[in-house]
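Project channel, design review

CF: Before we commit to the Treponema brennaborense constructs, I'd like one complete example in the thread so the newer folks can see what an input/output pair looks like. Taking Putative septation protein SpoVG.
RD: sounds good, go ahead.
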Amino acid sequence: MQITEIRIRKIAVDGKLKAYVTVTFDDCFVVHNVKIIDGKTGLFIAMPSRKTATGEYMDIAHPISPEFRAELQERILAEYRAGHVEESQSGDDMIE
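CF: and here is what came back for Putative septation protein SpoVG:
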């Protein structure tokens, strides 16, 4: 499976959430709402998730292998750091 497109929408509001990302795989499957977070040890990605009835968050889609997660994070953060982002007015139009 190849990553064929990465689209990043930077969040204009200050905070730990820096951007929302849409990733396309093999030009035929897309995952929306991957988040770029500024954590204690630097930037990382968080997969799209939903809140369960118990208040916990559960990933909707996620890499199975640590190697693919590392590759996905590396590619997304490289695009973010290179400045290939679209400005967003706020995070209000995004789904969490």
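RD: helpful, thanks. The radius of gyration is 13 Å.
CF: The CA atoms of residues 8 and 80 lie 7 Å apart.
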